[in-house]
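Review form for a predicted model. The reviewer records the input and the model, then writes brief findings.
Reviewer: anonymous (R2)
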Amino acid sequence: MHRWGTMHRWSIPKATLEIETPMKTFGIILAGGTSTRMGTDKALLTHKGLTLLQHARALLHTLDISETIILGRPNEPDGRKDYAPGEGPAANIAAFINTQKSPFKLVVLPVDMPLIETEQIAHLMSLKQGGFFEDLYLPFYVKITESKNISAVNEMSVETPRYCACPDKGNMARKSGKYQ
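Model under review:
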């Protein structure tokens, strides 16, 4: 007769793999509004040979963006009408978010920021929870995990870290009172 030894159960630690499902990344250019204070269409002003709209589009084109949307410009390629006409950028962003199936990532860039550079937006996009610049809520980057009835942009970004551009150092720093 064959004699079996004592059976031992080996405790094998279970590996936890965090596999991030690829999410669609929307790049939104805010180009709506009437430009009444400016007296002319801001998106069509030129800076260094490009209109502000061309600059914003080119900047997003250099990033890992799945789809570019130009809010407030239904006649432009990739353009859409404002989702909440006359309600301002926050209401239009919230309305756009509510039309999308979550999860997804969102980069929002106003058309009238010709001095913003690719590296600055890329840095925001490299932050796990997203971010925005000190004292500015635009541009920003955020991951939307649930998009049910978002009524204001600040509802979704309470936990989003704030970052600021440091012109003298050329880098970003977490809001701490000191630049790193």
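Findings: The chain is about 20% helix and 25% strand.
Further findings: Residues 4-10, 152-180 have pLDDT under 50 and may be disordered.
Recommendation: see findings above.
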